[in-house]
Design brief:
Length: about 100
């Protein structure tokens, strides 16, 4: 079954938080290297993703700057090559999931 993933920027305050959060949300393997290259390696071969929704991307950008932009570019590339639906909201969204 294909998975829908929610990334809530308000739950992430630094790079360590980000990778802890991504491990949990994407159920990443134990060998995941906790960097963006490793994230790409794992996600680009994952055919079980249907949708990635990023909320509070503006907050994430404030906390991570260029690293946030690189993360979002990974999601954009992933959506292009693996037919994953991608939604990015600068703030929250109506009926936001906690």
């Amino acid at each position: 079954m294909k998975r829908k993933i929610l990334v809530n920027g308000k739950k992430i305050h630094d790079k360590t938080d980000l990778h802890d959060y991504l491990i949990k949300q994407f159920n990443l393997p134990s060998y995941y290297g906790r960097n963006l290259d490793a994230l790409w390696d794992v996600l680009s071969t994952n055919r079980n993703l249907k949708k990635i929704t990023v909320i509070h991307a503006g907050y994430l950008d404030t906390k991570l700057g260029e690293y946030c932009k690189s993360l979002l570019n990974i999601f954009i590339e992933l959506s292009a090559i693996n037919d994953v639906e991608l939604l990015i909201f600068k703030e929250g969204r109506k009926n936001e999931t906690k």
